[in-house]
Every structure is written in C-alpha cells, then in structure tokens.
Amino acid sequence: MSALRRITVIVGYEWRRALAKKSVLALIILAVAVQTLILTLYSQFTAGTMFLTEEVKPFMWILGVLQGQGLFVQLIAIIIAGSTMSEEYEHGTADILLSKPVTRVEYLSGKFLGGFSLLVLVEALTTGVGVILASWFFGPQNSLQYVPLMFLAIVYSTLIFFCLSFMFSEAFRRSTLAVLIALAILIASSIISQLLAWLYITTSEYLYFYLSRGIPTWGSNYFPSLLMRELMIIPSTAFLNLINDPLIPIEAAKRGVSEAILVREALQQAAITIAVYAIVFILIAVYRLLKSDVTKKTA
Amino acid sequence: MASHSVIMVSNLTKYYGKFKALDSVSFAVDKGWVYGCLGPNGAGKTTTIRILLGLLRPDQGEVQLAGINPARDPVNALQLVGYAPELPTLQTFFTGEQLLDFMGKVFGLSAQARKERIWQLLDLVGLKEWGKKKIGTYSKGMVQRLSVALALVNDPMVLIMDEPTIGMDPEATAHFRSLFTNLSKEGKTIFISSHLLDEVQRICTHVGMINKGKIVFTGSIEQVLEAFTQQWVVEAELERVTETIVSSLKKLDFVEDVKVEGNKLMIALKEKKDVRGEISSEIFRQKGVLLSLNLHKITLEDAYLRALKGGQ
CA A174: distance to chain centroid? Predict the structure, then answer.
C-alpha cells in the first residue's frame, strides 16, 4: 500500500473522530447561527446609514463571508486542531494507531489533513451561508465570481491558528492545554496588534508598524480582506473600514502613495507571514513526534 | 543469537529520565514459539513490548522483527505484527465492525478480504452479536476480546500481547488460551507478557524472566524448570499413615526427608530422579494402602520466585 493511501485512510479516520465530538458540531451550528444573527442585525440597524448605502448592498456578501471567518472559524480551527494529536495520547489510542504499518510522518500528515479538510468544509459552509444570507437580506449580489478566491483566502488565513493549535496538541499532548494556550495567543495577539497599531499612529515609529504586521492575527485577520481589495473596487470607505486594516489609509496619507500600492504590499506580507508561521509550527510538531516516545495513556 | 529469529532483541537499554527501565536486555524468539515474558510490575515488560513496536526509542541496542528494525522501517516491520495492548482503550465512536474494517484498511486489505475477515474474527472472539454496536457500550472483557481480534486482522506472523486475558471471564480465558495454542501450531510466533504464571506454563513454549530491567533467565519451559529446581518431592497419599511407614521411608538411601501432612507424606529426594516405583514398593512392604503417588518437580511460580531472588 502506498504512503498516499495510508494517509488517506488516516484522513478518513480523523473525520470520523472529529465529527463524533459534539463540541465541534455545536460550534459549527453556533458559527452559522451567529453569522445569521449578525447579518440580520446589520440589515436592520444600518439601513439608511453610510454603512448600508444602495451602492454597497450588492457587495454585502463580502461582509457575510468575512465576518464568518472571524472569531468562530478561528475558534473551530483551534478546537479541531487542539485535539487532533493529543486526544490519541489521552485516550491511549495513539499506541493502537502507531503500532500499525504507518510511519510517524504519514500518521501526522493524515491527522493534519483530516482535521484541516474538515475545517475547510466548515469554511465552505460559512462562506455559502454568508453569500446566501447576503442575497436574502440585501438583494442581488455583484462580483460573485470572486467567491471561490475569497474562500481559498479564508482557508489559507486559518492555517496560522490551526497549525499553532496542532503544534501545541502534539507538543503538550493535552487537548485542554493546547486549546487554551492557542486561544490565549489568539486573544493576546489581537490585543497586542491593536496596541502596536495605536502606538504607531501616536508615535509614527515604524518599529511598531512592522511589529504589528508580524503578529499572527494580522495575517490571519486581514489576508482575505486585502485580497478582496486587490480584486474588487468597493464603492464605500465606511464599509471598507469595517473589514480592513486601519493602518493602510493612515500610511497612504503619511507616505503620499495610493492605498492600492499599500494593499498589494500588505497582501504579500500577509501571505508570507501566514506561510512562515504555518511552516514553523508544523515543523515543530513533526520534530516533536519524530524525536520523542509515544507516551502512554495520559487521561 | 540465531539469525533466523523472528524477534531479536539485542543489548536493549532504556532510560526514563534517570531511571534505567531496561539494562542491556537481549533475547531471541524463533518461529512458532510462544514466548512468555514474566516479571513483576515495573520490571520492563511493557517497555520491551513498546520498543518492539517502535513506540519507544531505545537509548542503546536494537530490536528486529523478521530482520527489520521497526523504528527504521515501521511499514514493513509492523505489517507482520498483530498487537493487543494491556487493558486497551479503543475508539469508542466506532462499532466493532467499523474498527476492524479501519484496521484492515491500514494493513492494506482489500474490501472483499476485510468483509470476509471481520465477521470471521468477530465470531472467533465471541463478539458476532456485538459487531454492529458502538465500542462505547462494550464491557472491559469485550474490549479485550476485540483487541485480540484487531491483533489478528492482518493474519500476522508475530502476535505481541500484553496481559491478553486480563479482564476476561474464566470461559473466555480458556477459549483464548486454546486459541493462542492453535495459532502457534499454525506457525505463528507469539510473544506474551503476563503475570499469570499458570497461564504462561500452560501455553508458552519458552519464557524470559525480567526483573529490574534485566533478563534473569531465558529458555524453554523445561529448561527453566530444570534450572530452578532445587529438590524433587514425591507426594504419597495413604489410607492411614503409620510411624513404621515413615521410618522405613526415611531409611531409603535416596530419601532426604519425610514430612507428614494428615494422611499425606511429602518425601523429599536427594537427587532429581523419579523413584516412585521404589517408594510404592516400600509402602506396600510396610502394609500401607496407597491412594495416590505424585512427583512434584517444581512449578513455574516456584522457579519465577527463585529467579527473582537471584538464586537457583
């Protein structure tokens, strides 16, 4: 049997394992419910304001898709990845799996791809729901040909926290610890990113600007919206400010360049940041699995 | 060490922090042997098994399964192995049938082969009625049975089992002991770690005794019994024990001592020699009525306890 086939078998196993967990299913339902609630509230409370002009209504699918990508999808990513490796040690099933004819790298690859492909399905669901809800509440939508690209951007942007939680799952071999630490980093990273942006605005010190872009949440939060700006022209600054990096207009004014140039620059930086973080986290997880013993049941 | 050994363990040393769990352990298991690994808790039995399966990395030494190191080439080494862990925790979200099917896939069995094998194995371990039920609803003994079925899914050349009958009822225990004996007759090599000395003596052809991370004895059951036998004892049950019989037996030149326990005589011999004929003749000569006469060499339990004390 080929390595690819063995990985595929473990991917199938991982799907069954993750879907058997009620907490994952509950979070998926909650994510869709919150997405529906936000769009309902937005349609009710912003009607007639600068946030919901007639010009912007055909682009509301962007909000529908991107707000789903925010907290809940990151949370689902952390919860799925946080238990992927560690639960097998906690339940003692890692022994059963790793005493079978699979290499550790195949096992880890299968677990990673299984968990991540499940997350991709959740993201496909929230993206689809976002587009449907936007059409429902705000009428016909424009530029829908970019939905697949936006979906891929969302998938790519969730890699950071998925890989971070996956790494902790293998490093600590405790699901609760892995999820809590990854969540703490997500929250701390958001706060620090805002703080650094504020320090840059008040001091004009570029160190803060670059530091804020090195924070994991910057790449994961803004990569899809930066791509959206690269692809489309949205006819409302107010609407854009809801989902965009606030430093771009400030920086454009300061440097006297167009926002489009800065968006392209930021898009590249976000793509690199996500790739670097994801690769480093995965390499640490691989190193840990290859170099250490398979621990016995821990829970 | 024989090059045709199915399991070969050479100079294995393993530390957990500063604790030396295995200290230069070496032994070999040939094809068709049922090898019992005996030792007290913490002796290093499970550590040895986990190294054999590539789950732990030894600090020194090497293991080979059919000439393949499982740490370097787990795919080819573990393809030949079936493993049943001690008190296993299986994936409770699967049914017994689904878990066997998944394991069959891991071993690369075709859909047709899996279909045939799964129900055959469930029947073999007495779980046919439970195949379609979630493992979460199984009792401990049933999980243990399923674990043995899982170990057999790939029709392995080597079976490694850690305390395989723990948690099973007496009927199941007897069934599985007979299953292991039959599997060994089919040419499978079986490595069993067990605390149940009676079980090991019944089903194993060879034993390895391990204590404090060191192998204290390895050999066939006959060799171990011979090596650790200090004295043979003949147990004679009489209708009535008389002083004349006891004193006449004591005078025999091959008798070391005679102890009276009710209507039984425990006759300790000077040499490891079967002298039941001479003893029965002497009892008849003294007008005794003999009900039974048994020669006690030594049990595996006695040998094991002596081995752990370091004496032979």
Answer: 22
pLDDT at residue A241 is higher than 90: no
pTM higher than 0.90, yes or no? Answer: no
- Selected for mutation to probe chain B from A10, A16, A96, A291 (highest B CB count within 10 Å) is A96
Domains annotated on chain B, with CATH: 7-219 (3.40.50.300), 230-296 (3.30.70.100)
Residue from A98, A99, A107, A297 whose CB has the most chain B CBs within 10 Å, to mutate: A99
| B312 pLDDT higher than 50 | no
Nearest Cα residue to B11 out of B159, B218, B174, B215:
B215
On the question of pLDDT at B95 being above 90, the answer is: yes
Question: Which residues from A are below 8 Å from B75, CB to CB?
Answer: 6, 101-103
pLDDT at residue B155, rounded to an integer? 92
In angstroms, rounded to a whole number, what is the distance separating the alpha carbons of residues A257 and B21? Answer: 67
* Contact across the interface for A17 and B91, Cβ inside 8 Å: yes
Q: What are the residues whose beta carbons fall under 8 Å from the beta carbon of A104, sequence distance 6 or more?
A: A98, A289, A290, B74
Q: For residue B120, how far is the Cα from the chain centroid?
A: 25
Sole residue written with tokens 């729901």: A129
The pair of structure tokens assigned to A215 is 């924070």
Q: Give the pLDDT of residue A291.
A: 92
- Judged by phi (left if over 0) then psi (alpha if -120 to 50, else beta), residue A143 lies in left
Query: pLDDT by residue (tens digit) across B245-276?
Result: 999 999 998 898 898 988 999 898 888 788 89
* Alpha-carbon distance A295 to nearest alpha carbon in chain B (angstroms): 8
Q: State how far the Cα of B34 lies from the Cα of B183, in Å rounded to an integer.
A: 9
Q: Which of A165, A156, A128 minimizes the C-alpha distance to A144?
A: A128
| Pair of tokens at residue B24 | 């230069």
CB contact under 8 A, B56 and A93: no
Backbone angles phi, psi at B227, to 5 degrees: -65, -35
Q: Determine the pLDDT at residue B175.
A: 85
B237 contacts B264 by C-beta, under 8 angstroms: yes
Selecting from A1, A92, A99 the residue whose C-beta is nearest the C-beta of B53 gives A99
Which chain B residues are within 8 Å of A6, Cβ to Cβ?
75, 106, 108
Q: Is the ipTM of this complex over 0.95?
A: no
- Spatial distance between the Cα atoms of A166 and B227, rounded to a whole number of angstroms: 54
> Lowest mean pLDDT: which of A92-96, A233-237, A281-285, B147-151?
A233-237
Distance from C-alpha of A115 to C-alpha of A15, rounded to nearest angstrom = 7
Write out chain A residues lying below 8 Å of B94, CB-based: 16
Q: Band the pLDDT of A69: cuts 50, 70, 90.
A: low
Rounded to a whole number of angstroms, the distance between the first and last alpha carbons of chain A is: 33
Q: Give the nearest partner residue to B106 out of A17, A101, A297, using CB atoms.
A: A101
List, for residues A112-140, the tens digit of each pLDDT value. Answer: 999 999 999 989 998 999 999 999 988 89
* pLDDT at res. A238: 63
Q: Measured between beta carbons, which residues in chain A are less than 8 angstroms from residue B85?
A: 92, 95-96, 99
